[in-house]
Amino acid sequence: MGNHHSHEHDSPEAPLQTGHVHHRHTSLHDNNGHAFVVAIVLNVSFVVVEFGYGFAANSTVLMADAGHNLSDVLGLVLAWGAAILARRPARGRYTYGLRSTSILAALANATLLLVACGAIAWEAAQRFSQPPVVAGLTIAFVAMAGVIVNGLSAWLFLKGSKNDLNIRGAYLHMAADAAVSAGVVIAGTVIVFTGWYWLDSVISLIIVAIVIGSTWGLFRDSVQLILSAVPANIDIDAIDAYLRCQPGVTDIHDLHIWGLSTTESALTVHLVMPDGYPGDEFMDSIRETLENRYAIHHCTLEIEQGTISHFCPVK
């Protein structure tokens, strides 16, 4: 998706019963390409180093964390690809472009993270009965590098994560990894002084629980967007009330709101106005309010005079 998406006004010959609100808006997407490149390079390098040291130190928690980091690299690639595709203009059968690929990437990110957590938990549980000897000092130093790498990567996505579920997925991956690495530092340090090798598995399970807790919201929100639910940041009741109180509007029906992408939303609604089409200025005023106050970036408003009863076929 480019920096803006433009629409032209309907021709004067269009039927008065229908008003399709077209407008020019600025995309909420920032180009996070630089952040993705830096984060991917840093994490690929760290995965290689961490797995090598984990194998040498016989540490499940290091090797598991390396596997988790690898899944995050794949998640970053998915998120970056979706961000690129989302900027492609609409064409052919894809009349909304490929914006929704960002939703698919957010879901894939959450799924990858949950699967990785399952693998870590399984391996940690297998080692409880006979905890292997691990090199605690090596674990602590390698994990400290992980805190730095993942913390920096998370910081790169912090700003974009506030308004974009796809970028939020990348941010959560990196932030979770920083927390995982911090836990590993603690485990390695304690093992050095106590010889409690079973702590390697315990910390792994604690980390898994924390990561699942932070990931579940991303998974839930992305599934809801795929099912065309009203985005979590949009108050449909407030929008309903706003439309009903507009001058000349006696009723509304067929109000639908859904996510076009992880940053943009769309709305369609039928406004019952007995006096007929109120003019372009009135329609633009509603559109601007819906965008600025209620975060609706593309809306279609259909005007009816109420002479015939209409019912939404999907309700």
In short:
This protein is α+β, with helices and mostly antiparallel strands and 315 residues long. It has helices spanning 33-57, 60-85, 101-126, 136-157, 165-194, 199-226, 236-244, 280-294, and strands at residues 4-5, 18-19, 25-26, 251-259, 265-272, 298-304. Strand 4 and strand 5 (265-272) form a beta hairpin.
Q: How would you sum up the global shape? A: elongated
The parts where pLDDT drops under 50 for at least 5 residues are 1-30
Query: What pattern of helices and strands is seen along the backbone?
Result: EEEHHHHHHHEEHE
Oligomer: single chain
Total beta strand runs: 6
Taking the alpha carbons of the first and last residues, their distance comes to 32 Å
Q: Based on helices, strands and strand pairing, what is the structural class?
A: alpha+beta
Count of discrete alpha- or pi-helical segments spanning 4 or more residues: 8
Strand order of the largest sheet: 2-6-5-4
What percent of residues are in strands? 5-15%
Q: State the helical fraction.
A: 55-70%
| Biggest sheet record | 4 strands, mixed
| Radius of gyration computed on alpha carbons | 25 Å
Report the average pLDDT across residues: 78
Walkthrough of the structure:
This protein is of the alpha+beta class and 315 residues long. The chain has a four-stranded mixed sheet, covered by helices on one side. It has a two-stranded antiparallel sheet with strand order 1-3. Helix 3 packs parallel to helix 5, helix 3 runs antiparallel to helix 6 and helix 4 packs antiparallel against helix 5. The N terminus is likely disordered.
